[in-house]
Structure formats: structure tokens, C-alpha cells
Amino acid sequence: MSNSIFDLEQHIIRRVSEMDNTKVSVEVEASSWLDVNGIETTVYIGDVDMPQVVKVESLESLIAKTLLSYEVEFKIASEHKEDVERLLVMLKNAYEYAERRVQGLGFDE
């Protein structure tokens, strides 16, 4: 995502420079949040209160894309076995961390 933000910023700077031969700076801020629908990424361009870009991607979609990148002929390629194992450990650790944090914050089921 950062490449596309950088490209947009450079395009804006070029367009303004073409108009009056001056350089300007454009502040671009991007952040990601985890919510019940997946991962939400917001992009703010300039001094604004509302984001210009909001994208939500489900965890299922991200996992599917990641696993697809490891596939060869509809199976996980043997050279990616370690990558898949590390991915599964990371996801399990993320769940366990979230569960500990929720319990530590006094959430009762």
C-alpha cells in the first residue's frame, strides 16, 4: 500500500509543480486497525478530519491470498512448508495474545 500512497503523493506534487513551478509538500498518513470485519486501513491526505481512503479486508481474504501465494498446482509447495508453519504459529499466537489481553482488561464471558 505504501507504494501507491507514495505514487499518489508524487503525482500531486508533480501536478502542482507543473502549474506554477513551485514545490509543495503533502502530508500522507496511513494506519491500520483490527476490527470485527478484518483489517481496516485508512489514508489521510493533507490536513483533513476524514480519511480519503478506507479499505477493509477480511482475515479470511488475507489468509486465502497468502496461502494462494504458496500454492503450486493446487497444493502447498514443499519449499513453502516452513512459511506455512510460521504463518499458523503467528496466527495462533495472535489469538492467544488477544485472549490474554481481553482477560487482563476484565472481560467476563
Word description of this protein:
The protein is of the alpha+beta class. The chain folds into two domains: 1-57, no CATH class; 58-109. The chain has three helices and five strands; from the N terminus they run αβββαββα. A hairpin with a 7-residue loop joins β2 and β3 (53-57). The chain is flat, with a radius of gyration of 20 Å. The chain starts with a helix and ends in a 5-residue tail after the last helix. The mean pLDDT is 87.
Fold blueprint:
Blueprint (H helix, E strand, L loop, with lengths): L1 H19 L7 E8 L2 E8 L7 E5 L1 H11 L1 E2 L2 E2 L4 H24 L5
Antiparallel strand pairs: 1-2, 2-3, 4-5
Keywords:
23% strand, alpha+beta, 109 residues, two-stranded antiparallel sheet, flat, 3-stranded antiparallel β-sheet, 2 domains
State the helical fraction. 40-55%
Strand order of the largest sheet: 1-2-3
Largest sheet: 3 strands, antiparallel
Average pLDDT across residues?
87
- Summing up helix and strand content along with how strands pair, one would put the structural category as alpha+beta
Principal-axis shape equals flat
* Cα gyration radius (Å): 20 Å
Strand content: 15-25%
